[in-house]
Amino acid sequence: QVQLVESGGGLVQPGGSPRLSCAASGSIFNTYDMGWYRQAPGKQRELVAVIRSGGSTNYLDSVKGRFTISRDGAKNTVLLQMNSLKPEDTAVYYCILGVSDSAWDYWGQGTQVTVSS
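Structure (tokenized):
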């Protein structure tokens, strides 16, 4: 079974630039699509960013220009660099991995990001 473990969340001030990381088990890490979802209370779950197995990336419109997703295959780690954080970025962020082309098959436990003064 694939195991995804997120880290890097916490309390950050508006305008801050934390970096989330997701460590994945297994040697198949860079074979599949990966990404980040986020869930805030009372809000629709959002797909924040995706990095495809070939290296291409996609972003939620509201985070374009502020967030960057990347992959370090040697370390089996996917990163989400978040810049210029806003209170509306507050959410639990989940690392995800998709085995098939149209499904997110594995989810991490989530890490809370709270943007507040």
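Residues 48 and 60 are 5 Å apart (CA to CA). The chain has a mean pLDDT of 93.
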